[in-house]
Amino acid sequence: MLDKGLILIVEDEPAIASILEAYLIRDGFRTVSASDGEIALRHHSMLSPDLILLDVKMPKYDGFEVLARIRRDSNIPVIMISALAEDLDRLSGLRLGADDYVIKPFNPQEVVARVNAVLRRTRNNAANVAIRFENILVDFDAHAAFTDTGDERQLLPLTLSEFRILAHMIRRPTHAFPRNDLLDACLPQSDALVRTIDTHIANLRRKIEVSGGPSGLFPAVRGIGYRLAEPR
């Protein structure tokens, strides 16, 4: 099953939350819901969702307060949802750091389209950073990967396909990636068979271990594909 990420739906009207949940799940997302601002902040802290759909009018903390608190230490994408169409409310949300804004009543399909668009944009923007997992470092700006033992940083001799797979998986190291997802994300416009991913994974595992990286990476997930590392 396609897994496009976890969406936190912050909405105090159960009917609206259920509609959004149904459409997002149908599009390949996982969802979790919060009915007030306090629960929303707790879910954000504990679950690290990929995007938040954030209603403005809520109990305990309204959407603007929730957004302000999140933005103190997180750049997670946020789409605000409100029945208030006044420009002042829209500008308040954007000024606090919202990535988009949806006015009620809305078409749920449009909301899903906006979720996909914001995630594409923010994930592309995040490509110009370095991400570390254990002693593996992927530098997206340099388009290179290294093992870093503290005393020495060694460049991993990866092919383009191997680098793309590692860069794709390191963002969510314990996530179970289906082979088809890895093929689509890392070998676009390729006629390669799905099982080609197995060869690339085996080569990645070997090259990382030879270069002083951790052993046992890329465990197979039966019936699905691979993850970078087992959950702890």
TrEMBL record:
Residues 128-230 bind DNA. Coiled coil: none annotated. The keyword Oxidoreductase does not apply. The keyword DNA-binding applies. The modification 4-aspartylphosphate is found at residue 55. Residues 6-119 form the Response regulatory domain. SUPFAM superfamilies: C-terminal effector domain of the bipartite response regulators, CheY-like. PROSITE patterns: OMPR_PHOB, RESPONSE_REGULATORY. Keywords: DNA-binding, Phosphoprotein. It comes from the Bacteria. Residues 128-230 form the OmpR/PhoB-type domain. Pfam families: Response_reg (PF00072), Trans_reg_C (PF00486). InterPro entries: CheY-like_superfamily, OmpR/PhoB-type_DNA-bd, Sig_transdc_resp-reg_C-effctor, Sig_transdc_resp-reg_receiver, WalR-like, WH-like_DNA-bd_sf. This is Flagellar transcriptional regulator FtcR. It comes from Pseudochrobactrum kiredjianiae.
